[in-house]
Amino acid sequence: MRVRGERGEVRAGGRFVAALGRWRLEPAEGVFRGGRLVLTARVLARDAFWSERGGAYDVELDCGSCRWRWRGLAVAWGEEIAAVTSERPEVLDAAE
User: Fold this and answer.
1) Which tens digit of pLDDT belongs to each residue from 66-76?
2) How confident is the model at residue 15 (pLDDT cuts 50, 70, 90)?
3) CATH code for residues 3-93
4) Is 66 in a helix, a strand, or coil?
């Protein structure tokens, strides 16, 4: 599965951590089916305190009329974030 989008955010315990711009999900190298996906996304804005604390983050991506959410991801921070996800996110209504 390869998917691209325009918006998303990172949260920690319900708190805003970062606003994301263009993002993409691609299969991790060497994984063909039912494996992990690599998420990369441009960071538009971030809260330095919460992004530097480490630990697990929740990542939500806008995808059409819904939002995809992965909980408890380890995120590598820079101008872009990088994280490895499971293939199946929680699917939320876009209004949530």
Assistant:
1) 999 999 999 99
2) very high
3) 2.30.110
4) strand
Phi, psi of 24 (to 5 degrees): -150, 145
Instruction: Tell which residue, 56, 67, 52, has the closest CA to residue 20.
Output: 67
pTM value is 0.88
Are 69 and 88 within 8 A, CB to CB?
Answer: no
Q: In one letter, which amino acid is 61? A: L
Closest CA to 10 of 53, 46, 55: 46
Residue 18 DSSP SS3:
strand
Q: Yes or no: say if 81 and 24 are a contact pair by the CB < 8 Å rule.
A: no
CB of 83 within 8 A of CB of 59? Answer: yes
Tokens of 91: 């699917």
